[in-house]
Structures are given as C-alpha cells and as structure tokens.
Amino acid sequence: MKANAINWFEIPSTNFKRAVKFYSKILDAELQHMEMDFDMAFFPYQDGGIGGCITHGNGNQPSQEGTFAYLNGGEDLSIPLSKVEGAGGKVIMPKTSIGENGFMAIFLDTEGNRVAFHSMG
Length: 121
Description:
Largest sheet: 4 strands, mixed
Shape: globular
Helix content: 10-25%
Order of helices and strands: EHEEEEHEEE
CATH topology: 2,3-Dihydroxybiphenyl 1,2-Dioxygenase, domain 1
Structural class: alpha/beta
Strand order of the largest sheet: 1-4-3-2
CATH class: Alpha Beta
CATH superfamily: 2,3-Dihydroxybiphenyl 1,2-Dioxygenase, domain 1
Distance between the termini: 29 Å
Number of strands: 8
C-alpha cells in the first residue's frame, strides 16, 4: 500500500478566473495555469507531495455533496479561513477541534464546492 491514499484532487469551477482568484487569495499562493483540452490551475506542492488543481471545461460540476478535499491550513487554519468570506466564499463550519488530530473548518468556495481546511494548530 502507498503512503498516501490521495494522489491528486481537482476542484471544479463554473467561473475559472473567479475560482483561481479565490484560492490564490485565501492560500496566499500563486496557482500555475495550464491549458489542455480544458483549463487547469495547479496548487503549489513539493515533489513527492499530493497535488491538485482547479479545473474548468472538463465536464465536472461544483458540488456541496459527496467527496471533498481538506486543504493544508498551515500552522493555524484560522489564517486562511479568515480570508474566505472576503474572497467571496462562505464559512459553514468554523475552526473546530478534532482532538489529537488538530483542527478543521469547512467552507463553500465561490463556485459552490464544499472544501475544508486542516491544521494541527
């Protein structure tokens, strides 16, 4: 069995530029755009790490139901979470302790996707 159950994730968008702006703002990171048969904007990641992107035009639709991703909230997820509403999203579960596993928070992005943050602090 591999060390990580997740290898890759994609977050669909209805408005690609808006979604890229949202995630760039809340994560304080530049996403790398790539055009294939559809648009993709890659989240930063290190070699050997788990990667993901925002997609548009590949038939996927944003959703508040089903599988959702937990993004790395850094040292304290309160920092990126505090940027969600100012960037056009909505916090639906504030920073919440999950005991020895740290903290989590859930939000809706500008596209209507349910996404979470995780941090140990």
